[in-house]
Each structure stands twice: as structure tokens, then as C-alpha cells.
TrEMBL record:
GO CC field: membrane; periplasmic space
Task performed by this protein: Part of a binding-protein-dependent transport system for aliphatic sulfonates. Putative binding protein.
Leader sequence residues: none
Protein name as it appears in the record: Putative aliphatic sulfonates-binding protein
Molecular function (Gene Ontology), one example: ATPase-coupled transmembrane transporter activity
Keyword Signal: yes
Length: 344
């Protein structure tokens, strides 16, 4: 092979390498350009436009509720509160809890702004130093909570509970019912063995006989009556008032009085609707709670509705609960319920 042939082949080889380099460079540039363009689109999508910036809620109202807290559950479903607050640039966040004590713990740590519980959770929370404030109450009524026994139980009266294991949700409204029922039968709280269980755990324990009695509220009470024939040993009538309470924090009540008032007005509206439409409420709760319609219809017949201001009588009733729990060693220090009532 001549020198000219070698030189010619070298030129061709070098030309091929250059063209390959050109092709690879173009592909790399195209890839980098594509990635850069995608990144630009992503950044643009995440960056608020003037329209979206203006529509972003300036404030969020965080509400705690239980599925069994009917008024709040209905308000959540209807969406009327969201519609009313939208022009004020306020959104609503709903947070579900298993029971009142857990909800008030969330209120205490600042996870929610508004809560609804039975009578006793606020007493325990205030005794623990929570900065809660009572803003209104709901007159549920004594028939909406009871001490249940199985239909074949030999227990016939409250006095028969002596030495027996009784399930209840610690710190809930039925805690006070149990204390009052035992007192009325000449027993002390120490005469029974409390088994602190939330409703979801108490029901199977009750059915299987792991506990002798169950202190519970509607609609779980009505579900046990209709589904398994549970028998009411005693309900709260004549023993307790069984009120529900709407609560917030001291800071929220002072800083957002108008927002709080709007919420209470919407709750009153939905409560009036529920009071006048028990069958519709029962059908709504059937889907929400997974409880059979007959149980919910029974529960609706014996409960009260309303969003009422706290009177001296209501405050005195809460104080009596607090004093009773203090005497039993259930709370660590005395409290003045009046100091936790929102100023009108």
C-alpha cells in the first residue's frame, strides 16, 4: 500500500469520526434542550400566576369532628360553610377523630381551631392546662347514652355491677354517667373494674363477653340494641344532662370572632334542618357510619339538637362534673369552668 493510499484512508477515517462526533453532539444538545424546556415548563406550572395567586386561600379554618357528631358531619357534607367563606378567602379543613379526648389534644397542640365533644373531655383537658374555650352547647339529652348489658346477662340492676368489668371510653361523656349511676345505686367508682376502650374496640369486647357491661352513646348505643339485642341497664335520664360542647382556643376566639360567629351560624342552620328531618339524617348517617338504618332512626328519636349559648346553669353543670372527678382523683387539680367560657 502506497503512502498516498494510507493518507487517503486516514482522511476518510478522520472525516467519519468528525461526522460521528457531530451526530452525537446534536443528539446531546437536543436532549439537554428538551430537559431544559421541560424544567422550564415545570417551574412555570408551579409558579403562581396573578390569577392563581389571588385565589389561594389566605386562611384555613381547621375543624375537628367525629362521624357521630351529626351537626358537624352534616355541615361538612353540605358544603354551605365553604360557600359562605369563599368570598372571604377562607378555606375549610376537616379533621376526623375517633373521640373527644383525642380531638381536644389536637386542639391543645394547635392542630385544629374548632372542636365538638361531650361533657367530660373539656374537663379533663382544662385540668391538663389546655387553653380551650367553650363557645356553645348542644342539648343531646340523657336518653342518648346508657349502660348496656347483653340480653342474656344476669345483671339486672346497676348494683349488680359491683366487681364487674365495665367498658367505656376514658374521659368521654359516658365517664360521668357511669360515676353518677354507681352513686345512685349506692356503689363507688372503685367497686367496678373499668376497661378503657374506644367504641371500635369496646363493641367486640362486649359481644364476646370480655367485659360485663358497656357505657356508650348513640348511635353506637342504638346499634348494639338493634343488632345484638343489648339491654339498657340504665340510661342518662334523671342522672346526667348529656350536653355536647363546641370549643375553640383562647387565641382563636380573640383573634377570629367573626369567623367563629359565621361557623356557629351555619351550625345552627344545619342543626335546625336536622331537627326537622330525622329520617333524612338517618339515611345520611347510614352511608357515613355504616350503621343500619333502624339503629340510626332509633338514635334520632331520642336526641336533641341546637347551638345554644352557655347559661349559668350549663356552666354550673360542668363545674359539678369537674368537682366530682377531682374528688375521685380522676383529674389532678381543681378547675374553674367559668374561666374557660368565651366572653360574648
Amino acid at each position: 500500500m502506497s503512502i498516498n493510499d494510507i493518507s487517503h484512508r486516514f482522511k476518510l477515517s478522520r472525516l467519519g469520526l468528525w461526522r460521528g462526533f457531530q451526530r452525537r453532539s446534536i443528539k446531546a444538545f437536543a436532549l439537554l434542550f428538551s430537559l431544559g424546556l421541560s424544567l422550564s415548563f415545570a417551574i412555570a406550572a408551579c409558579s403562581p400566576t396573578p390569577e392563581t395567586a389571588n385565589s389561594t386561600p389566605a386562611q384555613t379554618l381547621r375543624i375537628g369532628y367525629q362521624k357521630s357528631s351529626t351537626a358537624l358531619n352534616l355541615l361538612k357534607s353540605k358544603g354551605d360553610l365553604e360557600k359562605r367563606l369563599a368570598p372571604q378567602n377562607v378555606s375549610v379543613e376537616w379533621n376526623e377523630f375517633a373521640a373527644g379526648p383525642q380531638m381536644l389534644e389536637a386542639l391543645n397542640v394547635g392542630s385544629i381551631d374548632f372542636a365538638y365533644t361531650g361533657e367530660t373531655p373539656p374537663v379533663f383537658a382544662q385540668a391538663a392546662g389546655a387553653p380551650l374555650v367553650y363557645v356553645a352547647y348542644e342539648p343531646l339529652g340523657g336518653a342518648a347514652e346508657a349502660i348496656l348489658v347483653r340480653k342474656d346477662s344476669p345483671i339486672q340492676r346497676v348494683a349488680d355491677l359491683k366487681g364487674k368489668k365495665v367498658a367505656l371510653n376514658r374521659g368521654s361523656n359516658v365517664h360521668y354517667l357511669l360515676v353518677r349511676a354507681l352513686e345512685s345505686a349506692g356503689l363507688q367508682y372503685s367497686d367496678i373494674e373499668p376497661a378503657f376502650l374506644p367504641p371500635g374496640d369496646a363493641r367486640p369486647a362486649f359481644e364476646q363477653g370480655s367485659v360485663d357491661a358497656w357505657v356508650i352513646w348513640d348511635p353506637f348505643q342504638a346499634a348494639a340494641e338493634t343488632a345484638m339485642g343489648a339491654r339498657i341497664l340504665v340510661d342518662g335520664q334523671g342522672l346526667v344532662e348529656n350536653r355536647g360542647f363546641f370549643l375553640t382556643t383562647q387565641n382563636f376566639s380573640q383573634q377570629q370572632p367573626q369567623l367563629l360567629q359565621t361557623l356557629l351560624e351555619e351550625l345552627q342552620t344545619v342543626s335546625e334542618w336536622a331537627k326537622n328531618n330525622p329520617q333524612n339524617v338517618a339515611r345520611f348517617l347510614e352511608a357515613e357510619l355504616g350503621i343500619a338504618l333502624p339503629a340510626l332512626e332509633l338514635a334520632e328519636k331520642r336526641r336533641g339538637y341546637g347551638v345554644l349559648p352557655l347559661s349559668d346553669e350549663v356552666v354550673a353543670g360542668q363545674q359539678k362534673i369537674a368537682d366530682t372527678f377531682l374528688s375521685l382523683g380522676l383529674i389532678p387539680q381543681p378547675i374553674a369552668v367559668k374561666s374557660a367560657v368565651a366572653k360574648p
